[in-house]
Write a structure and sequence with these properties.
Blueprint (H helix, E strand, L loop, with lengths): L1 H13 L2 H4 L3 H13 L3 H5 L4 H21 L2 H9 L3 H14 L3 H6 L6 H6 L2 H11 L2 H12 L1 H6 L2 H16 L4 E10 L2 E8 L9 E8 L2 E4 L4 H20 L1
Antiparallel strand pairs: 1-2, 2-3, 3-4
Helix pairs in contact: 5-10, 11-13
Length: 242
């Protein structure tokens, strides 16, 4: 009996950690539930440390790009190269929407580079998730981009449009996991889509890696996977408004 128990313990030790921890599909369901509940920090807790560093690199490059484009010599060089219109367009957009507008599009409520750079990586990830949520996106649109247009509408029509946007942004978005593709070596790909759509909506894939007995989302560029998830959410919200 003792020999059998020892053999069982040895066999268990040889099983990869990914096989012993909660499945990637179950972890994905918890992640999507956090999105439905607007728990942005909880969503960030599902992202592995390597991916958080990748997000930080995206943020740093964004800040550096804005700083470079703001330099007079760079603007002059862009004008001479015939691409000054792009810089002018960005300046006009930023002027129309207020300071920090471009940062607010990428990271919710962040208005300047100093605030962004002082933020811990996981908090930065949470702000990214919130910024891609339909509620936040519609809030920016109604408060900034479309404010002038709505203000010029007849009172009843403008109020109706704003109310519809508020309802669409606040409506919880349900998700469903439709499959899992194990790759081995602690890597698995989860297939998902927005639930309840007729006809059924497009699917997306999230890659998970097992670390320390848990599954975590892993990416090298957030737009590759999470950007697609955000697009599916926005598409579902627009379909619900029709």
């Amino acid at each position: 009996m003792l020999r059998l128990l020892r053999a069982f313990i040895v066999a268990l030790a040889l099983v990869p950690a990914a096989a012993r921890c909660q499945s990637a599909s179950a972890t994905a369901r918890a992640f999507f539930q956090a999105h439905t509940d607007h728990q942005w920090q909880a969503m960030a807790d599902f992202v592995d440390s390597a991916s958080l560093r990748a997000m930080r690199e995206v943020a740093d490059k964004m800040v550096a790009s804005f700083a470079t484009m703001a330099k007079p010599e760079v603007r002059a060089a862009m004008d001479s190269a015939g691409v000054g219109a792009m810089a002018n367009m960005m300046s006009s957009l930023q002027s129309m929407m207020g300071p920090g507008s471009m940062l607010r599009f990428m990271f919710a409520h962040v208005t300047d580079a100093a605030e962004l750079q002082a933020m811990p990586d996981r908090d930065l990830m949470a702000r990214w998730f919130e910024a891609k949520s339909p509620g936040y996106t519609m809030g920016l649109a109604s408060n900034d981009m479309l404010k002038g247009m709505i203000d010029r509408m007849p009172a009843a029509e403008g109020s109706g449009m704003r109310a519809a946007m508020d309802v669409a942004g606040a409506t919880p978005l349900p998700w469903e996991v439709v499959g899992e593709i194990p790759e081995g070596r602690g890597v698995s790909h989860v297939v998902y889509r927005v639930a309840g759509q007729t006809p059924q909506g497009a699917t997306g894939i999230l890659t998970f890696r097992a670390t320390g007995g848990r599954w975590y989302i892993h990416f090298t560029n957030p737009d590759d996977q999470l950007g697609h998830m955000a697009a599916l959410a926005l598409s579902a919200m627009q379909a619900a408004q029709r």
